[in-house]
Amino acid sequence: MLDDKYELMVGKEFWDFIGGNGAYEEILDCFESAGIKMRPEIDEYFSHFK
Q: What is the pTM of this model?
């Protein structure tokens, strides 16, 4: 059994614990930037599955 308040962290709670306050938002920003830059490559890859 896990104590949800002290032993179970996911998403924002986890990343802010690991990287400090604001780390989760920074990670989201990085993924968004990478997604925007790589959009053509991503679309090309997934076009093979339609």
A: 0.68
Phi then psi dihedrals of residue 49, to 5 deg:
-105, 5
Q: How confident is the model at residue 21 (pLDDT cuts 50, 70, 90)?
A: very high
**Encoded tokens for 41:** 């490559």
User: Which of 1-5, 19-23, 29-33 is the least confident region?
Assistant: 1-5
Residue 8 · residue 2 · CB < 8 Å: yes
Kind and range of the H or E run holding 29: helix 23-47
Which amino acid, residue 5? K
Handedness of CA 9, 14, 18, 21 (dihedral sign): negative
Backbone angles phi, psi at 5, to 5 degrees: -70, -30
